[in-house]
Amino acid sequence: MRRRTRALVMVAAVGLLAPLAACAAESGPPVLTWYINPDDGGQAEIARRCTDQAGGEYRLEVSVLPRDAASQREQLARRLAAKDTSIDLMSLDPPFIPELAEPGFLAPIPDDVAQRVSQDVVQGALDGATWGDKLVTVPFWANTQLLWYRKSVAQAAGLDPATAPVTWQQVMEASKSQDKYLSVQGAKAESLTVWINALVESAGGQILENPEAPADELTLGLDSDAGRAAAEIIGTIGKDDLAGPALPTEDENASMTIFQGDRGSFMVNWPFVWPATKAGVEDGAIEQSVLDDIGWALYPQVDEAQESRPPYGGINLGVGAFSRYVDQAFAAAECIVQPENQVYYFVENGNPPSNTTAFDDPQVIEAFPMAPVIRQSLEQAAPRPQTPYYNEVSSGLQETWHPPSSVNPDTTPQKSTDFITAVLRGDQLL
Amino acid sequence: MTSQATAPAAAEIRGTAGRSAKALRSDRARAEARLGWYLAGPAFVVMLAVTLYPILQAMYDSLFRYRLTAPDDRSFVGLANYGVVLSDAVWWQAFGVTVLITVITVAVELVLGFALALVMHRAIKRLRGLLRTAILVPYGIITVVSAFAWFYAFDINSGYVNTWFDWVPGIDENLNWFAEFGTAIFVIIASEIWKTTPFISLLLLAGLAQVPGELDEAAEVDGATWWQRLRRVTLPNMKAAIMVAVLFRALDAFRIFDNVFIMTNGSAGTTVLSLLAYRTSIGRLEIGLGSAISVLLFLAVIGICWIAIKLFKVDLAGARGES
Amino acid sequence: MSALTTRMKVAWAVITVLVLTYALFPVLSIMATSFKLPSELNTGTFLPSQWTWTNYNEILGPDGSARDLFLPALRNSIGISLIATAIAVVLATLAAYAIARLDFPGKRLILTTALGVSIFPVISIVTPLFNLWRNIGLYDTWAGLIIPYLSLTLPISIWTLAAFFRQIPWELEQAAQVDGATSWQAFRKAIVPLAAPGVFTTALIAFFIAWNDFVYGISLTSTSRARPVPAALAFFTGASQFEEPTGAISAAAVIVTIPVVILVLLFQRQIVAGLTQGAVKG
């Protein structure tokens, strides 16, 4: 902890003295700036380790971005559009990668690097790191949502998600029969898009049929059976009050709180809930029995004949096209994504690896007993639509599918298709 | 400063040396004008530079279809962006919400602020300092901080409001304040009122101080009730102060951004004009459309000002002591 | 006025309690939140059942995860607001002196401009400023925030000071000169003591305004180099990106409110005088 703090203080000092540091850097090794999403200090520690390993080839310093992914993108896109040379490495949320790759804001990955960093990487993460059939970012860590359940509730409802995959229908009926709340993310935020996308994909559809097309030629796949199936699930959960009153403002954190409470039953959420609940037990705010009651399984299916496509998230590393040290930045990226760093990051910060070999580490199983399920979920996971216009698509979905109780399978898919199409053509505001 | 003090004397000496009185006056006037501009010029230039240039740039940008992440696709579209904005329900919805917030906050603040001004005006010596200090706290607090305070208090998970007020019809532990337009806008407006009422009440306090005390006393001797005195003596004498306070607060409320951004970020139909402008130009990086919204927002503010000055005859210069 | 009747006393007591509740309750509310354990944030009670300094440790302590966000932001906020205040007060003092004492064409124009600038929707100019700043290298620098802050602080400083200066009996200056003082001495001995309170009050008000800014702060900065506190709150995070940093935000909110409360406590009389004098003149 102390070391990390010292490193962070140094980072802050360097940030402050950046102009001076730039001069000083002429003599020493080049200082690479790595823009990171906020975490529990893991990326700063990895940066320190890689600086040590580089043996004077480069020094890696971190600079923090805002908490939510959309604001991270705003900051980076604006700076890259300004041809900012100080952006060497970036931690990027996958949906926003095409927007930066398309105008050439990301430095192209040399073939040998691309080959090395895609070895043993789960499919979901490779898909998320690719744009136009080329790997444009280096897969770092990969996230996915699981179905978390209270064993007591599932048992009382006669459901055993651990043995066989369950469907949304079953989960909804089970929590209803037990008079408990089903925890999902209904807030008007990116998490709602995550949910819609997972449902549409699980039903065999796609939000965008041709995600690589220019804005005015993009075709939506929502007005389909898959889109209607997704709307049916979200609308029913909203209208039948299956998730409780918090639903329209419920994000990942709120979902977890409800799940931990007396009315918790089933929840779809990222693995952070496991260390967070354990921390709550240590603080004495949550009973040990709650932790013992938690089970996990693959994301629910929409159709029992079809494997589910769980949400895919995580972070990939991009190298700024205007960086002065592109070669060193790729070297640093390769260092960062080493399996042992991914293990460290998973164990300490709860962010799962994208590299399958990292899952075999005994520390991982110890900290995350559900690691094998996470790994399988990542293999099945479907990324959100990969388009340079992701922000418009995602915000358009949130505009038309919120609040969940207003979602109607007969009208919502059609309405959101019209709305998003109009926005993409520049005929309407968002 | 010294030159100003000595200039008239010097001019007088020169004047006696045979110049006409008229030339003398114009000489003196010219020197004074020059000095005036030397002193006030820097402030004037700075004010113009930080506002005039950007708004002109925004006007220019608003004529293009231009997205920051696709710089090569920039194309001139004339006034088409304005057409898109003005024909869009989203704009009018945000406009409506903004007007609603402005009207309600100003109306409530006028009453509440007047009450607070009376309290400060009449307070006995021993309490005056305490009351003023308390009233100034919301004025000094950061808007974002106030927004978080209100948000956490009302939030369905972390808040205590539902537990405290569950005896009020319509409020129970299941009320999600930020899920519905009515309740969300209520909290937004309440926090805005809390934060800015002190400002309006200070403006009104200034007005109160100008009501001639003799008039009030005379009315009291004549047997007028408190209410009659307020309506017949105090309020008419404060008309200028009230008008200025209303106009200032209205323009300020029209720009509301921080509270909405923190509490709902526009969900549940609470998008206001500033947030729409922010979302378009900074969130979507649509510089052209965003600039069009910015310019329209600017014109709306000018419009309110114009209406206030022409229709309600708010004499800003007079109110500023420039009579 | 004669001694207060009992009824009046009771009335004033009630009024005082009401006003104090109104003004201070939200502050106490976030203060209470700031002392809650992270896992206790959702219990729906006002006061924490178990008071903790954890959240303050997060933002101030040597191991705090938000420390490296908060402390630089605090330093930026203080530095930028102070400099913006100082520049605004100097420029406004010169301008207000001219407006109060001299007669020159364009006086009204300056006052009208000040009014116009003060009602300007900040959001309208933030995008062009962003583009300009990044072209001339002011993006994410102190100067890049100080300059737009002047558009917020200058106008109100000019009015407040102009109103103050109009009330100064300038004849004193001449009187002192007649008594044999040099003009500089006359100015320093007779005028400065009279003008100083007004300047000081103006500085306080301008500081509050700069301290409050959020839109420029989030739009024109990108690192700890220049990011002020209100913007930095959006960068706080819990143990993972999905956990809400309610506790750390509350603690930071309390810390940045303390200087405001102290200033208000010390200078309430001056602030009230400043705001009321600068505002309305029949």
From TrEMBL, chain B:
Protein name stated in the entry: Sugar ABC transporter permease
Keyword Membrane: yes
Organism encoding this protein: Cellulomonas algicola
Residues of the signal peptide: none
Keyword Nucleotide-binding: no
Residue intervals passing through the bilayer: 35-56, 90-118, 130-154, 260-278, 285-309
Compartments, record wording: Cell membrane
One Pfam family in the UniProt entry: BPD_transp_1
Membrane topology: Multi-pass membrane protein
Source organism, top-level taxon: Bacteria
BP GO annotations: transmembrane transport
Predominant cellular place of this UniProt entry's protein: membrane
Start and end residues of each ABC transmembrane type-1 domain: 95-308
Stored CDD domains: TM_PBP2
Family, similarity comment: Belongs to the binding-protein-dependent transport system permease family.
UniProt KW keywords: Cell membrane, Membrane, Transmembrane, Transmembrane helix, Transport
InterPro entries: MetI-like, MetI-like_sf
GO cellular component terms attached to this protein's record: plasma membrane
From TrEMBL, chain C:
Bilayer topology annotation: Multi-pass membrane protein
InterPro entries, per the entry: BP-dep_ABC_trans_perm (IPR050901), MetI-like (IPR000515), MetI-like_sf (IPR035906)
Main location per the UniProt record: membrane
PROSITE patterns xref list: ABC_TM1
Subcellular location: Cell membrane
Origin species: Cellulomonas algicola
Family from the record: Belongs to the binding-protein-dependent transport system permease family.
Transmembrane residue ranges: 12-32, 78-97, 109-130, 142-165, 190-211, 248-267
Entry GO CC: plasma membrane
Protein name per its UniProtKB record: Sugar ABC transporter permease
Signal peptide per UniProt: none
Domain annotation ABC transmembrane type-1: ranges: 74-267
GO BP: any one term: transmembrane transport
Keyword Manganese: no
Repeat as UniProt keyword: no
Keywords for this protein: Cell membrane, Membrane, Transmembrane, Transmembrane helix, Transport
